[in-house]
Structure formats: structure tokens, C-alpha cells
Amino acid sequence: MSGPSEDHDRPLIPLPAGTRGLTAFALALGTFMQVLDMTIANVSLPTIAGNLGVSANQGTWVITSFAVSNGISVPLTGWLMRRYGVVRTFVASVTLFTIASFFCGIAWSFESLIAFRVLQGAVSGPMMPGSQALLMSIYPSSRRGMALAIWSMTTLVAPVAGPLLGGYISDNFSWEWIFLINLPIGALSGLLCWRALHDKETPTEKLPVDWVGLALLVIWVGALQIMLDTGRDADWFSSPSIVLLAVVTVVGFIAFMIWQLTEQHPIVDLSLFLGRNFTVGTLITSIGYAVFFGNVVILPLWLQTQLGYTATWAGIVQAPAGLVALLFSPLAGRLITRADARIGASMSFIIMAAGLYLRALLNSQATLFDFIVPMLLQGAGVAFFFVSVISITLDGITPQRMPAATSISNFLRIVAAAFATSISTTIWDNRASLHQSRLAEASSIFDPKLQQALAGLHDMGLTDQQSIAVLTRGMIQQAYTLSSIDYFYISTWIAVMLAGMVWFTRKPRIASGMAAVAD
Q1: Among positive and negative, which fits the CA dihedral 101, 126, 283, 25?
Q2: 85 vs 97, 133, 403, 412, CA distance in Å?
Q3: Could you tell me where the beta strands, DSSP code E, fall in 57-133?
């Protein structure tokens, strides 16, 4: 007869070692495909907009439509998995996402593409939390650090691979392939998961649908996502439409919270936030991912718009971070089963801060190698960050509540990424305008250095107007360089703050303690 410790160390979904590895790979593929799709279209927007005959501003709806429907569907994952089972919900989500990707790839107009992107985002909600919950279930408690490492690798590599792959496809192939490449990945992921897990479904409950809670969720999350995606182009709160969206978001959120706290069968389990580790861990995860994602957005913008990099080469600059994260995540997974995860989390933010600080020391004359060195540190930092902080966040969560916990934490992380995208670009532009005005104030037509520069340009055959245009372009480039440096410094200090914030959590119960998850 097995002892208690042996029972605790059994996976909730027992699989043979070989099958478990293949299933983990299939689950990771599902996560990779969704995260990849959230970033791959970004660099292809100009191509898509041009080919479908719409403006660049209209083209951003390719991103917004997906983000809105995905943001609404992710919080529903906990309810869906309790109602229909984790395995069925995840496999159905992967299958429908793959089908929606096919329709995106054959879209015949801009309107049809947006409709299929809405469908794609809506059905993709359970993919990320579902893969996380299932990975935690197929591994024994003593190896759940490795399960988190596998999940983290795909979550970290995909945002870096997305711009690289999207840039390459845009430069060399038709834009439709940024969606069609999902077909073999989705088919393989869904097939392998169903073959391994279809007879090992989790318990289900016949839960009533909280229609009021669902309606309020759709209202406030939809308004929030549209506000974040369109706010920058609309000049934020100087636009009446953005003010209206902000009011709808706040009022809808308050009404949603009140309803969920008083509803007998809420669509989102807010009682999870009574746990200190879940609350603080989710907050740290959200802020940390916002820092990571904001820098994923700003760096290629700086490289492409100011330093002359193509989309492909901007992706190559970021590739080392993904490769290092891929290499270090298994090590991080092993370490958290043997040491306090808070140490790993603090170490991760210190490494991230070091990489961000080195990036803040760069200038417009930096070489490719100069950019790659900070990216190596970033890759190592985020590898330990995800594995350690998620281990802290999910500490003590029972199997029955794991789907709800992973869906809420992933939802808030996605919202944080949306905030980071909007706020980072706004800060970048505003700081660049400030630096440009200061540089203009500090220069004068009577400045000997400026006169010397103009004389040099005249010697090259440029007219006065052409020479001034060249100098103005150089001033703009310098302004955006200073703005980028400001943003990297801000990110550095946030990472340092998070390194200390980790210690407001309780020491997680690893190995033997993580068996609490299996109780």
C-alpha cells in the first residue's frame, strides 16, 4: 500500500514517461501558437493594410479585434473547464483556433479578416490556461517545476519569435502565411493531446450560466481593450470617444465586481484573491510581463524607425533572448524544486534589471553585438522570472481551482501586456517630442558646430533646404534615442522594485509542499 508521500507525488493525470513528454510537447505547441499569433501580425500590419486597401490606422483593427475577443474569453476559461472538462475545453479551443486561422488566411476582404480575427480571439481563451493546468496535472509534484519550465519556454520564446517570423514572412512571402502556418501546429497539438488525454477527462459540474456576469464582463473588458488599442492614435483623453470608453470600463468593472461577489455561481472565482501568494504573485507576474512586453515593443520600433533595421534584422536582434530563455527554463524548473522560489524570482528581476541598464547605455551608433549582449541577460532573467513567480502564484491551489486560477492570472497578464503596449508607445513618443524641443532650443543657426555641419553638407552638393532636412532628421533620431534610453531606465527601476516585492509572499511549498496542489 502506498504511503501518503507516494500518493502526493503521483500526477493527477497518470501517463507513461514517454507519452507524458510527447503530451507536454503538444500542450506547449498550443501555447506557442497562441502567443505567436498575438505578436506575429504586428510587423505585418503595413503589408496587410496595403494589400486589402485600407489605411494603416484601420489596419490596427487586425490586432484590436483579436485582443478584445481574447481578453473577454480568457476569464471564462475556469467556468468552461469546470463545466465541460479541461481536456475537452483545451482540445476544442486548439481545433477551433486552427480552423479560424485557416479562414484568416483565406480572408477575401478587410471586413472578413476582422470577423475571423474576432472568432480566432474568442475561441483561443482556454488555450494558455488550459495548457498550464494540464501540464501541472500530468507531472508529479516533485517535477512540477519542470512542467512550469516547459510552459514558460513557449510563453517566452513566442513573443520574440513572432516579430522575427512575421518580418521574414512579410519580406519574402504573402501576409496570408502568418495565419496559415498555424494549421500544421494546431493539427499536431490537438491530435496528440486528444490521443493521450481523451480518456482522462477531469471531473465536470453542471453549472448554471451567469448571464449577467458574462454581459458585464463583455462590456468592461471590451471597452478597456478598445480604449488601450485606439487611445494612442486618438490622443487619449483629449478624445471624447476614449473618455466614454474609460467611463464604460470603470462603471462596468465596478458593477462586475459587485455582481461576482454576490452571485452564487460567479463566472469568475474572485475568492482566489483571498490567498496572499496568488494575489501578490499575480500582481508581480502582470507587472513583470508588462516590463518584458513593453520592451519587446519599443526595441524593434526604435531599431526599425530610427536606426535603419529591417523587420527581419530587428527580429534577429531579439532572437538571443528567446534562445537563452529556452536554454535556462529547464534549469530554473529544477532549481525551484530544491530552493525557495522567491530567491529565483528576485534573482530573475536583478538579471533583467542588469540587461535593461546595459541597454540604457546604448546610443544610435551601437552595433548589432551591443544590442545582443543585453538581450542575453534579458533571456536569462525572464526564464527564471516565469518559472519562479508562477510557482509562487499557484502555491497551494487545489486541482479543482487550478483552471480558474490559471485563467485569472493569464487574463491579468494579457491585460498588463495590452497596457504595456499602449503606454510604452505613448511614453516613447511623448519623451521624444520633449527631447526634440530641448535639442531645438539648444541649437542656433549661429552655432559654429551647426554652421560647420551645414558647410560639410554643402560640400557634398546638398542645398540649404536639403541640408536642414538632413540635420532635422538627425535631431529626430537623437530625440527618439534619448526617449528609448529613458524607457529602458524606467524599466530597470521597475525590475529592481519587483525584486524586493517578491518577499511580500509566503515561502512556497515546493516538492513535498507542492503536493498540496494534488490534495
Answers
A1: negative
A2: 18, 11, 10, 23
A3: none
CB 62, CB 117: distance < 8 Å: yes
Alpha-carbon span 426 to 234, nearest angstrom: 11
| Cβ partners under 8 Å of residue 434, min gap 6 | 483
Q: How far apart are CA 74 and CA 124, in angstroms?
A: 8
- Which of 23, 289, 40, 338 lies closest to 150 in space, CA to CA? 23
Angle between helical axes of 341-360 and 276-305 (0-180°, round to 10): 20
Residue 311 has what pLDDT? 67
Query: For residue 424, how far is the Cα from the chain centroid?
Result: 14
**How far are the Cα atoms of 14, 63, 98, 502 from residue 389, in angstroms, in the given order?**
26, 28, 30, 8
Nearest to 237 by CA among 218, 250, 252, 221: 250
Give the per-residue SS3 of 250-261.
HHHHHHHHHHHH
Q: Which residues of the chain have pLDDT under 50?
A: 1-7, 511-519
DSSP 261-286: HH-SS-SS-GGGGGSHHHHHHHHHHH
Whole-number mean pLDDT of the chain? 81
Tell me which residue has cell 515546493: 510
pTM of the model: 0.79
Give Cα 414 distance to the centre of its chain. 6
* Inter-axis angle of helices 144-172 and 127-138, nearest 10: 140
CA 389 – CA 280 distance, rounded (Å): 10
Which among 134, 84, 145, 75 has a CA at the least distance from the CA of 404?
A: 75
Per-residue DSSP letter, 365: T
How far is residue 101 from each of residues 7, 66, 67, 106, 165, measured CA to CA in Å?
42, 11, 15, 9, 16
Q: Which residues contact 465 (CB under 8 A, 6 or more apart)?
A: none
Question: What was the pLDDT predicted at 512?
Answer: 36
H helices present in 402-447, as ranges: 402-442
Three cell numbers at 474?
Answer: 538627425
In Å, how far are 300, 313, 359 from 356, measured between CA atoms?
15, 20, 5
CA distances from 5 to 100, 134, 147, 210, 511 (A): 45, 22, 20, 39, 10
Is 97 within 8 Å of 183 (Cβ atoms)?
no
Q: Which residues contact 156 (CB under 8 A, 6 or more apart)?
A: 321, 322, 325, 326, 329, 379, 382, 383, 386
Alpha helices in 263-367 (DSSP H): 276-305, 311-335, 341-360
* 3-state SS track over 16-45: CHHHHHHHHHHHHHHHHHHHHHHHHCHHHH
